[in-house]
Amino acid sequence: MFGPEGPTLRxxxxxxxxxxxxxxxxxxxxxxxxxxxxxxxxxxxxxxALAPLGPFTDGLDLCxxxxxxxxxxxxxxxxxxxxxxxxxxxxxxxxxxxxxxxxPRVAWVRGDARALPFADAFDLVVSFGAFGHFLPAELxxxxxxxxxxxxxxxxxxxxxxxxxxxxxxxxxxxxxxxxVMRVRNALWRPPFVMYYRSLRLxxxxxxxxxxxxxxxxxxxxxxxxxxxGSPRGRLVVARRAGxxxxxxxxxxxx
Length: 254
What we know:
Layout: H1 9-16, H2 20-27, H3 40-50, E1 56-62, H4 70-76, E2 77-85, H5 88-97, E3 106-110, E4 122-127, H6 139-149, E5 150-161, H7 169-187, H8 201-210, E6 213-219, E7 233-240
């Protein structure tokens, strides 16, 4: 799973026994050499699916990590892009790897996704692979903050992939990981919240609707379909209700 430039087993163990924030500070220099980084084909597929809904003016990458999603986000947004993450280490790496010459008008903000410091600032918010760090009870607060950060009519988008079947070894790998994390969090403080199987598509859709979004699920066709015909990859697109007022000049993000 990890190349020679990735973290050692000892480094992963130290990370797992830390808080989420400190753990990612430790992992940041080697994060892009782990399977936790969102693959390029996923980033490109999301950008391609969102392009017909644009152009967008200002975009936000929620839980941006080392900035892998900033380049495709910049292709969609005409004015500015902002990355927010609560790990200072991840943001330090992002600043080094996403240069202004590649992504102009970029801003980096250290902050908690559950308490975003923005209001009516963006037309598009995206997120890649971060929801395992939030407990189901935290979704209402998280989605309410995203809705507040969007302008009326703005969109919140993130990919969701079908979980493996019980006949797939990957199912038991993820189930085992979640079980180990629950035992670890029951015995060790501070907790490290990272559960691969705690959130389901239905939970996302219901919470988004309760938060005041109109939800538009879309298929990501490049990832094929399962044996039962259901898509392997979907893009959840949630639109903040209300048309933007053309008389109001949008605020610059960041």
